From TrEMBL:
Pathway connected to this protein: Lipid metabolism; butanoate metabolism
Keyword DNA damage in annotation: no
PROSITE patterns reported for this sequence: 3HCDH (PS00067)
Site (Important for catalytic activity): H141
Gene3D superfamilies in UniProt: N-(1-d-carboxylethyl)-l-norvaline Dehydrogenase, domain 2, NAD(P)-binding Rossmann-like Domain
Entry GO MF terms: 3-hydroxybutyryl-CoA dehydrogenase activity; NAD+ binding
Keyword set, alphabetical order: NAD, Oxidoreductase
Enzyme class: oxidoreductase
Record-annotated 3-hydroxyacyl-CoA dehydrogenase NAD binding domain positions: 6-184
Protein name per Swiss-Prot or TrEMBL: 3-hydroxybutyryl-CoA dehydrogenase
Binding site for NAD(+): G10, A11, G12, Q13, M14, G15, D33, E93, K98, S120, N144, K275
Naturally occurring in which organism (per UniProt): Thermoactinomyces daqus
Keyword NAD: yes
GO biological process: butyrate metabolic process
């Protein structure tokens, strides 16, 4: 199952990073978003990352141009789906939205195409069930920032075929990543472990135990985390953090996963972290 052409759905922080990393690995990439503004923003982010690599002497200007030349931006899902060997969906963390995208992809993509989701926590088996090719649906969970982080969690849905798993594992390696196999349970491994820690850090602020700065200092200097949990929550996006906590809470039915009310409040206020300019911290 050779994968030459991939399509990435959603040009947000994850989709743009996946598109960049795929193009740097020599793949032809089609990047789609639903509107011109987010598509352009995604392309600008990719250009910015590559220009930084040029300035650091890691790649030449010609290499940067070749990578950019392998990324085809489009606004229509039909165009992205038509010739793809593999599609990686990276739209918002919401089952209804993802199900709608997968239903359309199932109709539009070639029969051999693998449909992967970059979901942080939603059940792959449930996403697969809206298609007529559940054996070709799989989770391919990249970490943020994609060009830097080595891990790809590869999630087997209940019906994912072995050859599909093998093809995706191979592709992750080609993209310079280390694939780790996990089964399909809420939050998989990464967010089952990470997100309750972030949620607990938010509770510490909510209950007045310490300021966000103090909580982050404790975890950075005391536990050697590269970013404190609240800086990381702002970086991931507080809306995404809340979606993930809700999926853990609903999926396990255990009160230990209840999202902190302060997280809900910030998301309701539109304080989504770095991407909206304000979260636990403010950004330019
Ligand atoms: N995009 C691309 N490259 C980036 C980047 C970005 N947003 N941010 C930093 N980099 C690159 C820099 O260019 C630099 O590259 P070189 O080594 O080639 O110079 C390298 O990363 C290190 O950057 P800095 O020296 O500026 O900063 P740093 O040492 O603080 O590292 C970091 C930045 C890698 C982001 C680091 O802070 C880190 O590892 N943070 C934690 C990230 C993390 O936990 N990610 C997982 C989030 S959870 C998730 O993704 C799953 C989910 O479903 C929510
Ligand atoms: P984001 O908000 O930065 O980007 C989402 C993009 O999808 C936006 O540009 C939006 O316009 C686009 N979009 C929405 N609906 C669409 C549709 N129907 N068709 C085409 N484009 C559409 O979000 P993100 O942080 O990139 O997260 C995307 C996915 O990746 C989520 O499932 C998230 O859980 C997952 N994820 C996020 C992180 C993280 O740290 N942020 C890490 C790993 C996985």
């Amino acid at each position: 199952m050779e994968i030459k052409r991939i399509s990435v759905i959603g040009a947000g922080q994850m989709g743009s990073g996946i598109a960049q990393t795929g193009a740097q690995a020599g793949l032809d990439v089609t990047l789609v978003d639903m509107a011109e503004a987010p598509l352009q923003k995604g392309l600008e982010r990719i250009k910015g990352n590559l220009q930084r690599d040029v300035q650091k002497g890691k790649i030449s200007v010609q290499e940067m141009e070749a990578v950019l030349g392998r990324i085809r931006p489009v606004l229509k899902l039909e165009e992205a789906a038509a010739e793809a060997d593999l599609v990686i969906e990276a739209v918002v963390e919401n089952m209804e939205v993802k199900a709608d995208v997968f239903r359309k992809l199932d109709v539009l993509c070639p029969k051999h195409a693998i449909l992967a989701s970059n979901t942080s926590s939603l059940p792959i088996t449930e996403i697969a069930a809206v298609t007529k090719r559940p054996e070709k649906v799989i989770g391919m969970h990249f970490m943020n920032p994609v060009p830097v982080m080595k891990l790809v969690e590869v999630i087997r849905g209940l019906q994912t075929a072995d050859e599909v798993f093998a093809a995706v594992e191979q592709l992750a390696k080609r993209m310079g990543k280390v694939p780790v196999e996990v089964n399909d349970f809420p939050g998989f491994v990464s967010n089952r472990v990470l997100m309750p820690m972030i949620n607990e850090a938010i509770y510490a602020v909510y209950e007045g135990v310490a300021t966000p700065e103090a909580v982050d200092q404790v975890m950075k200097l005391g536990m050697n985390h590269p970013m404190g949990p609240l800086t990381l929550a702002d970086f991931i996006g507080l809306d995404t953090c809340l979606y993930i906590m809700e999926i853990l809470y609903e999926g396990f039915g255990d009160s230990k996963y209840r999202p902190c009310p302060l997280l809900r409040k910030y998301v309701k206020a539109g304080w989504l972290g770095r991407k909206s300019g304000r979260g636990f911290y403010t950004y330019e």
